[in-house]
Amino acid sequence: MKKCIFKQLGVGVLLVGMVLGLAGCGGSSQEKLYVYNWGDYIDESVLADFEKTNNVDVIYEQFATNEEMYVKIKAGTAKYDVAIPSDYMISKMIKEDMLNTIDMNAIPNYAKIDDRFKNLAFDAKNQYSVPYMWGTVGIIYNKTMVDGTIDSWDVLWDEKYSKQILMLDSQRDSIAVALKKLGYSLNSRDEKELEEAKKLLIQQKPLLMAYVGDEVKDKMIGNEAAMAVVWSGDAVFMKGENPDLEYVIPKEGSNIWYDAMVIPKTSQNKAMAQKFIDFMCSTDIAYKNADYIGYSTPHKEVIEMLPAELTSDPAYYPADGQLQNSEVFEDLSDVLPIYDRIWTEIKSQ
Amino acid sequence: MKSFLMKSYTFLIFFFLYAPILILMIFSFNDSKSRGNWDGFTVKWYIELFQDGQIASALYYTLVVAIIASLIATVLGTLAAIGINNMHGLPKMMTLNVTYLPMLSPDIVMGISLMLLFIFVKINLGFITMLLAHITFNLPFVIFSVLPKLRQLNNDTYDAALDLGATPFEAYKKVILPQISPGIVTGFLLAFTMSIDDFVVSFFTTGSGVSNLAITIYSMARRGINPKINALLTLMFIFIMAILVFVNYRMAKEKQSEKREKY
Amino acid sequence: MKRKFLTAPYLLWMLIFTIIPLVLVVYFSMFETGPDGVRFTTEYLERVFEPIYLKVIGRSIGLALISTLFCLLLGYPMAMILASKELKMRDFLIVLFVLPMWMNFLARTYAWMTLLENNGIINQILAALSLPALNILYTDKAVVLGMVYNFLPFMVLPIYSVLRKIDRSLIEAAEDLGATPARTFFKVIFPLSLSGVASGIIMVFMPAVTTFVISRLLGGGQYMLIGNLIEQQFLTTGDWGFGSSLALILMVFLLLTMGIMAKTDKDQEGGGLW
C-alpha cells in the first residue's frame, strides 16, 4: 500500500544520500585550509589548483556581507585561515585585534601589486592585508533616458527624473552620497552634517523608484530606470550588456572601495594561509580571478594582460585625476548608532 | 457548474504559484548573466553547474539536513501534540507559548542566540549544530499541523479500543494515528519546506565547510544570482516532479489492482 | 493521564534550544557590557517605545495582518477544494502545492520582479494586447502579493487536513433541515474547521511579522520593518542590547495578544482554541 512505496523511496533516498556523502568525504587526514569569501567571488578552479600543488584540503565558505562575516569570526568558533573583507571592516578588525600580521617576505608576489594600492588608510604599514579587488562607486545612467551628460550627484535629486532614480539600499553608501553632495567627508562624525544629509535623503525619497541591492544591474540593463548608484565592477558588466549605459564618478567625489585578504587570529595554519595569499597574487591565478569576477584588479601584470578596451575604460580603471575627492570608508563603529537612527527615520517616512 | 468553478479556481491558484517558477526555468537557458536581457538560448549554465563542487556539496547538505530534521521534528512534534492535547490550564498555555517562540523570533535573533549557545557549550559549529537548529524551528510547524486533527478526534474511539482489549500503544497505532495522519503528513511537508530553504539560522549555526543551498545563493547577494542557480533549481524541480509522477502512477496502479481483487 | 508525559522529550528539547537562547536575549536587553563591567539597564527597553520605533513595529504588524487575511480568503476555498471527496490525485496535488516553496526564495522573488517590472513579462503581454500597463512593483500591493505567495501553503494545508475528516453526517443533517449552502457553510463547516484556521493564521501571521526580505525586494526597500531594524542592530550597528530589546518586546506583545484572544474564545475545555 502507500507505506510500501514510501519505504522503497525512503531506502532509495538514503542509499543515494550515503553514496554521495561518502564520495564527498575525501581524505580527512589531510591538512586543511579554511577560506572565507564573498559569494561568487573567485574562479573556483583555482581552489582545485591550490589543493593539488600543496596537498591540502581547502574548506571554502561564503558570506553575504562584511557584518555577517564579522559576527562569525568574532564568535571565535570557526577556524578561518584566510578571509576577504572590505576596507572599513579590516580597519575594525585591526582595532579589535582580530587579525594576524602577515609576513610580506613570505609573499613574494606582493611585489606585483601596484604601489598605488599599498599603504592605504585602513592598513597604512601593509602589515595585515593584501589587496584582492577594488573599485569605485558612481552613477550609471541610460543615455537615451537622460538629457546631456551627468557629472554631479545633484542629478539624483532632479525632479525631471522622478521615479526613475535608484539608490543603494545600504546605510553608509546612501548617506555617503548625500554627504558628498553637500561637500562633506563620507566618514563624517559631525551630527550637524549628518542631520543635513538626512534631510536631503528624506527630500529625495519621493523621487526614487526604489532602494535596491544587486538587482540594480538587471534593472538598468532592462531599461527600467534612468539612473542608479552602483559599484564600478557592476557598471562594467552592465555597460557590456547594454551599450546605452554610461558610468561616471561625480565631480564632488565618491567612494573607493577595496576588498583584501587577511589572516584572522583564529587561523591554525598561518604558513599555509600565507602560501594561499601568495598563490592568489601569482599572475596567472590573479588573471583567472580578475577575468571571472570582472572587477578591477590591483595586480600590475594582470592589468597588462587584460584587453585594452577594458583597461582603458575609466569605469574599470579610472585615472588618478578622477579620484581626487574620493575617499575610502573608515570604521565608524562608535557613530553607527547615529547613522542607524538617520536611516530608520528616512525609511519610516 | 460547481465542478467547473472548482477546476478554474484550482487552475488559477496553481498558475499563480507556478508563474515565477516557469520564469525561473526559462531564464536558466538565457545566454546572458542578467535577467534584463534575453541573449539567446544556451545550456552553458548547466555545464558550469556540473563543474561546481561547492554547489554539489551545498545541495547534498541541504537535502540531508532537510530530510533528517523534518523526520525527527515530525516524530517528536507528533508525540508532543498528543501530549499537549491532553493538557489543561496553565501548563498547556505555557507549553503553547513556548511553541510559538521559534515562529515569532526574528531569524537573526534565533540564529545568533543558538550560535552563542553552541559556542558556550563548546560544540564545534557544523553539520550537527545546523541540524539541531533546523529541528528546533521545524517543531512548531509539526505541532500546529497535528493539534487541529487531535482536536477533531472523537475521544470515544480511543476508549472503545481500550475497552475492546487493545493496549494503549495498539490503540494509538491502529486508531489514533490513522485518523490524525493528514496532520502528520502536513506537518512533515511544512517542516521540510522550512528546512530546505533556510538562510539566516543556518548561516549562524553552521561551520566546518558545511553549507546549504540557501547560504550559497544568498551569499551571491552582492554579485547577483548566477544563472547556474536557475539551472540547479530547474533540475531539482524536474527530478522531484519525476518522483511525484512515478509515485502517483504506482499508487494509481495499486488502487486498480486492489479494486480488481475484490471481484 | 499518562499521555501528558509524551510532551516531556519535546519540552526538554525546547528548554535547551529555545528557552536558554531566550534567556540570552533577555540578558542582552537588560545588561550593558561597558568598560567598567556589566550593569543592569532599562535604557534599551525604554528606547523601543520611542515613536519612530513603535511606528516600525505597527507597520510590520499591520502588513502581517493584511497578508494573513488575504491568505485566509484565498486559501480557504483552496483547502475546501483539496478536501472534497471528488478530488482525484489529491496527494499529488498537495505536494504540487508546496513544491514551488522548495525553490529558493530569492530566485522566486527575482522571478516575480521579472514578471512585475515596467518592462516585465506581464506588461509586455498587456502591451501586446493593447491593454494599460500594470505598475504594482514597489507598491504595497506587490509586497502583499509576495507575502501571500510565500505563505499560502501554510494557511491551506492545516485547514485542508481538518476539512478532510469533517463528519459528513452533520453536513447532510443541515441540508436535510433545509439550510442553504451558505448557511451550512457558516454555521456548520466553518466552525468545525476553526482549529485548522487557527493553526493557519498562527503559521502565517507570526513569521510574517518578522519577514522583511519580501518588502525589501518587492517593496523597493522603501519602508523599514521590524525585521530589518532588528537585523541592522545585530549586524550593522552592533547594538545587540537594542536589537534584543526590540525582539523581546515584540515577542512579549504578540504572545500576550494571543493569550488574550484565546481566553475570550468560548470553549468547553477553557484552554483556548486547542
Query: Largest sheet of chain B, described in full?
Result: none
Largest inter-chain interface? B-C, 96 and 100 residues
Average of per-residue pLDDT values of chain B? 92
Estimated share of beta-strand residues of chain B: under 5%
Structure description:
The complex is a heterotrimer of chains A (349), B (263) and C (274). In chain A, strands 4, 5, 6, 7, 8, 9 and 10 form a seven-stranded mixed beta sheet that branches. A three-stranded parallel beta sheet of chain A has the order 2-1-3. About 2% of the residues of chain A have low confidence. Chain A is an alpha/beta fold and 349 residues long. Chain A contains 13 helices and ten strands. Chain A is 39% helix and 17% strand. Chain A starts with a helix and ends with a helix. In chain A, helix 2 links the parallel strand 1 and strand 2. Chain B is built from eleven helices and no strands. In chain B, helix 2 crosses helix 11, helix 3 runs antiparallel to helix 8 and helix 7 packs antiparallel against helix 8. Chain B is mostly helical and 263 residues long. The mean pLDDT of chain B is 92. With 274 residues, chain C is mainly alpha-helical. A two-stranded antiparallel ribbon of chain C has the order 1-2. Chain C is globular. The C terminus of chain C is likely disordered. The interface between A and B is large, with 47 and 45 residues.
Short description:
The complex is a heterotrimer of chains A (349), B (263) and C (274). With 349 residues, chain A is an alpha/beta fold.
What's the arrangement of secondary structure elements?
The complex is a heterotrimer of chains A (349), B (263) and C (274).
Chain A: H1 2-24, E1 31-38, H2 45-54, E2 56-63, H3 66-75, E3 82-83, H4 87-95, E4 129-142, E5 165-168, H5 171-181, H6 191-204, E6 208-212, H7 216-221, E7 227-231, H8 232-241, E8 245-248, E9 255-262, H9 270-280, H10 283-293, H11 300-305, H12 308-311, E10 327-328, H13 336-347
Parallel strand pairs in A: 1-2, 1-3, 5-6, 5-7, 9-10
Antiparallel strand pairs in A: 4-7, 4-8, 4-9
Helix pairs in contact in A: 5-6, 6-13
Chain B: H1 2-26, H2 44-50, H3 53-85, H4 89-104, H5 107-120, H6 127-152, H7 155-163, H8 168-196, H9 200-205, H10 213-218, H11 227-261
Helix pairs in contact in B: 2-11, 3-6, 3-8, 4-6, 6-8, 7-8
Chain C: H1 7-30, E1 31-34, E2 37-40, H2 43-48, H3 51-83, H4 90-98, H5 105-116, H6 121-128, H7 140-163, H8 168-176, H9 181-192, H10 194-210, H11 213-218, H12 226-237, H13 240-264
Antiparallel strand pairs in C: 1-2
